Amino acid sequence: MARAALRWGVRDLANHAGITAATVTRIENNYAAHASTLLAIRAAFEAAGIEFIPENGGGAGVRFRKPSAPE
């Protein structure tokens, strides 16, 4: 969902997360991944402005983070 929201292809995510496109594809096909790889993906999404929403009865999800107020 986050990749689609950003309009990133597999290679875009791989480049931002510092992993291979094959790794992204494997994870998206529900193969196991190292925790460090998942953290790198999450960090890449968060750096791009994605916010992860925890399960709240309606299911977990993602959204764009609100822009911070100018100082």
TrEMBL record:
**Residue ranges of every copy of the HTH cro/C1-type domain listed in the record:** 2-52
Please name the PROSITE patterns in this protein's record: HTH_CROC1
InterPro entries reported in the protein's UniProt record: Cro/C1-type_HTH, Lambda_DNA-bd_dom_sf
| Protein name, as recorded | Transcriptional regulator with XRE-family HTH domain
- From what organism does this protein derive? Ancylobacter amanitiformis
